[in-house]
């Protein structure tokens, strides 16, 4: 009888330990479930807010009167939506809209222009190899399938237009660190290129880095050009960029295709939008990435 009484205490302690472990496991699972639910709620809330911001932006682009770097709502000289990549607030969503004519088109960009852009992300020798592979990748008449940038394995070019900017990651030498640039707030290669786009450059919306990459301008020339653009002195801006050897087949005007980036309270997204002129639907969405952070 004494032996049985002596065994009760250790058995009780073992049972209590097991119950404690089970309780901690239940609490941990409940915490994980709660955190997941909160994340899902935040993601959905930002999804709604970002779609509302995109709808508002599309409306303003559809009915607005175009200027070299913006669209102005009829009857309101103050209400503008800029398409030069600057950040605007659309009901709490930080939104930037970039005119595709201010970006490097992966469809029509020359070998030299792509090389010049790559030089801002890597060495000259590496940029030369990558740009050669890029030309081979999209050239329908090319037959080579061997990488020329140092890899010994084979890759298989599309020999056609690129379907997505993400296809650049298939080209040897282009890594995720350059393509996405995971530093907070810093743009990567994907922020300066666009699939399709325009066959002319709109210098009024072209990012500063791209201007510096594509054209050999001195610091003072670049400062003067950007100052004229900031002041929206378009007559002087046009005279200046032409005198600097920056020629375009079209006058400085935005296209009807735009790369849009959105930053909600917790999540980000991006879309490539084409505004339909005189037809329905009002716009086409050829790229939609949400949450954008899920891409890298």
Structural write-up:
This protein has 296 residues and is an alpha+beta fold. The chain has seven helices and ten strands. Strands 4-5-8-9-10 form a five-stranded antiparallel sheet. The protein has a three-stranded antiparallel sheet with strand order 1-2-3, with helices on one face. A two-stranded parallel ribbon has the order 6-7. Strand 8 and strand 9 form a beta hairpin. The longest helix has 62 residues. The N and C termini lie far apart (67 Å). The model has no long low-confidence stretch (mean pLDDT 85).
- Summarize the biggest pleated sheet: 5 strands, antiparallel
Q: State the order of secondary-structure elements, H for helix, E for strand.
A: HEEEEEEHHHEHHHEEE
Low-confidence stretches: none
Strand runs, count:
10
Rough outline? elongated
Strand order of the largest sheet: 4-5-8-9-10
The overall pLDDT average reads: 85
> Helix amount, in percent?
40-55%
The N- to C-terminal Cα distance equals: 67 Å
Structural class of the helix and strand makeup? alpha+beta
Radius of gyration: 27 Å
Portion of residues in beta strands equals: 15-25%
Number of helices: 7
State the main characteristics.
single chain, 296 residues, alpha+beta, three-stranded antiparallel β-sheet, 7 helices, 10 strands
């Amino acid at each position: 009888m004494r032996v049985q009484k002596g065994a009760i205490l250790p058995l009780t302690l073992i049972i209590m330990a097991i119950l404690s472990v089970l309780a901690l496991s239940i609490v941990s699972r409940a915490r994980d479930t709660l955190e997941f639910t909160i994340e899902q709620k935040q993601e959905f809330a930002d999804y709604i807010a970002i779609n509302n911001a995109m709808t508002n932006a599309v409306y303003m682009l559809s009915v607005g009167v175009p200027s070299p770097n913006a669209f102005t709502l009829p009857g309101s000289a103050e209400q503008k939506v800029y398409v030069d990549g600057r950040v605007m607030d659309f009901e709490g969503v930080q939104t930037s809209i970039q005119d595709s004519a201010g970006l490097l088109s992966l469809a029509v960009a020359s070998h030299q222009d792509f090389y010049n852009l790559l030089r801002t992300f890597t060495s000259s020798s590496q940029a030369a190899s990558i740009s050669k592979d890029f030309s081979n990748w999209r050239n329908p008449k090319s037959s080579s399938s061997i990488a020329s940038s140092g890899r010994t394995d084979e890759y298989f070019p599309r020999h056609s237009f690129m379907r997505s900017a993400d296809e650049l990651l298939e080209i040897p030498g282009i890594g995720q660190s350059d393509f996405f640039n995971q530093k907070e707030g810093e743009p990567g290669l994907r922020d300066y290129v666009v699939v399709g786009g325009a066959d002319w450059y709109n210098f009024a919306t072209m990012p500063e880095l791209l201007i510096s990459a594509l054209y050999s301008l001195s610091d003072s020339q670049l400062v003067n050009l950007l100052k004229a653009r900031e002041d929206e002195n378009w007559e002087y801006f046009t005279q200046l960029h032409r005198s600097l050897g920056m020629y375009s087949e079209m006058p400085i005007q935005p296209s009807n295709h735009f790369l849009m980036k959105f930053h909600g309270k917790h999540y980000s997204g991006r879309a490539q939008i084409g505004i339909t002129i005189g037809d329905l639907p009002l716009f086409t969405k050829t790229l939609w990435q949400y949450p954008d952070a899920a891409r890298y």
